[in-house]
Amino acid sequence: METQFDFKNVVIKGDQLKEIEQIAEFIPGGFFIYFAEGKQELIYANSTTCRIFGCENLEEFKKLTGFTFKGMVHPSDYQAMEDSIRRQIASSEESLDHLEFRIIKKDGTIAWLTDFGRKANSDEGPIFFVFVEDITSVAKASENKMLKAALEDAERANQAKANFISNMSHDMRTPLNGILGMSELALEHIEDKERVTDCLSKIKYSGQHLLSLVNNALDVAKLDKGDISIVPKPVDLNKELENIKLTYMPLVNFKKQTFEIDGEGILCPYICLDAVRLDQVLINLLTNASKYSADGSNIVLKVTQEEEPNDYVKTVFSVIDNGYGMDKEFLKKVFQPFEREDHKRISKEQGTGLGLVVTKLIVEKMGGEIEVESEKGKGSVFKVTLHFLKLAEKERFKTVLRDKKVILAEDQYINQEILREILVELGAEVDIADNGLEAYELFKNSLPYEYSAVFMDLRMPVMDGFESTSKIRELPRDDAKAIPIIAITADTFLEDKEKGARAGMNAHLPKPVDIELIASTLCSLIK
Questions:
Q1: SS3 for 306-370, per residue?
Q2: Can you give the pTM of this predicted structure?
Q3: What is the gyration radius of the CA atoms in the chain, in angstroms?
C-alpha cells in the first residue's frame, strides 16, 4: 500500500520513505515517525532510537515499546506529555513541539530524553516527525545542582533556626533575670516604698517584654497554619490610638525618647477593624523603632486616610524614627523569620527576629500591605496600608431600623433567636427564613420595597446564601437590585467574601454578631 505524507507542502510517497529511512540512519540522534491518533503506532524508528532504549535491534525495541509512542514514554509522564503536546501544537503556526520526558530502558534504568516534534498530515491521518536525544547526563547534573542548592538552603534554614534558639534563650533569660533580680531587690528593701515602686515598674516592663517574645513565637506558628482569624468590630480610631500611646509610653520613657501621634489626616475616626490585631501590629513596629533608636531619639506614628468606593477608607499608619536604620542588603530580608541585623550597636537589643514576621502576616491577613524605607544612620519608616469599612455615628444606631421590615435567613434556631433580638432592638420587624429558598420566596412574594434589608447566612440546607442572593438580584424589580443583602456567617475566608460580592451581597459580617457592627453597617447601606 502506498502512503502519502504532506510535510511542509512536500508530498512524500511510500517508495520515497525508504530514502528518508536511509538518511535517518546517519542522523546522530534518534528519529521516529508515528501516527498522532488512535494507538499512536510507530511508522518508523531509526537504529539510534533503538540504542537509546538499550535495544540491539528493531525487534527488541518493538517488543519493549509495543512499537507505539505511548509505549516509549514513562507511564507517570505520559498524560503530562500529551497535554503539553496539545497546548504547543495549538499555539504554534508551524505545528512544532519541544518536550523533555523520561523513558524506561530495556535494563530497567530510567533515562531522560529531549524531544523536538512536528505534526504533519498523511492520507491515513495526522502523523508526527520526532527527533530525540538522550540528555540523562545533563538532567543528572541539573538534578545534582538543584539538590546541592536545596541542601544549602536547608543548612541556611537550620543555621537560622539555631541562631533563633540561641537568641530566644538569651532574650528570654534577660527579662527573666530582670524579674528575678528586681524581685530580690524589692524584698530586700520592702520598707522603702520608692525603691519597691521602682522595682515593680521594672518587673512589669520585663514581664511585658517576656510575654511579647513568647506571643510572637506562638503567633508565627498560628498564622502559618491559618489558626488566627480577623474579627472586625466598631472602633473609634482616635481612642484606639490613645490606648496604644498608653501602652507604649513606658518603653519610650525608659529610653528617654520622645513620641507623638500625628492624627491630623484622620477623616473617618469611626471604622470597623480588629483592634487587638491592629494594636499588635503597631506596638510591634513602635517597639522596634524604640529598640533600634538611641536614647533621646524621636518616634512618630502618623495616620492618614483617603476615602474609597463602597464606604471604605484607606488608612495608612507610618511609624517614623531617626534611629540606626538598615542597610540595603538587610532590607531584602527584614521580613524573613529569625533575622536580625548584625551590628555592634544593636547586638545587645532583645528580640527573636519574629516581630516583623508576625506583623507582616497579620497585615496580610487583614487584607493590607506593609513596606519599609530605611537608610543606615538616618532611621526607618514602616508604612502599613489597610482598608476599613466606615461606620456611622452611634447616635443613629438605635433608630436605623425603626418601622422597617427585614428578612433573616438562618437555619440554626439559637442563631435565629440571637439575631432576631438584636434586630428587634434596632427597631425592626423580622421575618424568619429557615433556608435560602424561603428567603427568596419571602422577597419574591412581597410588595415592592416592603423589606429594607436581608440578613443571609451562607451555609444553609435546600439553598445556600450565595444562590439565594443571586436569585433575588435577578428578579425584575427595582428593589431587588437596591435592597441591602448582608452576609452574617462564621466563614471569614477571603474567597467567601469575594464569592458573596459576586453574588450581589453588600457586606460580610462575622459571627459572633456584634450589635454595633450590624447597626453601623446598616447605617452605611440604608439611605
A1: EEECCCEEEEEEEEEECCCCCCHHHHCCCCCCCCCCCCCCCCCCCCCCCHHHHHHHHHHHCCCEE
A2: 0.43
A3: 35
